Fold:
Amino acid sequence: MAAEFRYKKLGYVALNATDIEKSAAFYENMVGLDPVGVGAQGEHFFRCSNDHHNIVVYPSDTGGLKRIGWQMEDDANLDLAFDHFTEIGLNPQWIDKAESDALQQGRTFRLVEPNSGATFEYYAAIMQFIPNFSQKVTKIARLGHVVLTLKNFEKAKPFFIEQMNFRVSDYIEGSIAFMRCFPNPYHHSFAIGGGDENRLNHVNFMVTDIDDIGKGNVRAKHSQVPIVYGPGRHPPSDSIFLYFLDPDEVTVEFSFGMEEFPEENPRLPRMLEPSLDTIDYWGGFPDPRFAAKGPIEKAG
Structure:
């Protein structure tokens, strides 16, 4: 059975942090997110839009990825997704109302994505703020994408396409597949890359001004935040990028600019050469710490 449900966007990413106060300060002052509040588990909510949250940081013994939240177009598509995942044996489970209320979300279900072991969450409704995101530090346009490194990269590609309803925008042969959550137009909301273990690769924020890349670069240096790649320019998405590390050495990206795809008659995905030139027009190369840490929390 092919997946036919429709996404709205990547809704939020939940991260684990070993020093919750240090990480909360980082995501507010370095990344530039607006703090929303603190939950019953000590989790800190942040937003870069009118949504109640786009990043949630949980206290934990290990830093890394807790879960990925996908917003569907509406409740009908949420139900379609639940039925599809049930049919293919992923055993999706609705969370109880108390937890969805604490997240300020409507009906919400979760499942364990079998290739990565990561928890994927699905919902259609989330509380909206009337005041706009302040953009007080960085003019963030949106939470852009999340990338996972997978041991079984080649096996995972058809699963995400056929069963999760992601559309491939471009491949780098043998190493990465850039995907958009259909029918979201951005070149990638999600990507998978090959590696020696399953882990979070990075979390991206798309900015509205190229100056935000430059200012982020300077701010990171003044704050002694490690810069692990860039500034540079990605040929696949044509975006200017900067990668840096959070306090648990999880990789975070700012990017400016991205190709958008029409829902109907999009261009075919390109198979790109596996080389550093395919990743950066400007000829840069990543620090060894780039995307090296980001363990995925195993579902309880």
Q: What stands out?
A: Helices lie at 20-31, 75-87, 97-102, 153-162, 210-222, 276-279. The first strand starts at residue 7 and ends at 17. The chain has a mean pLDDT of 95.
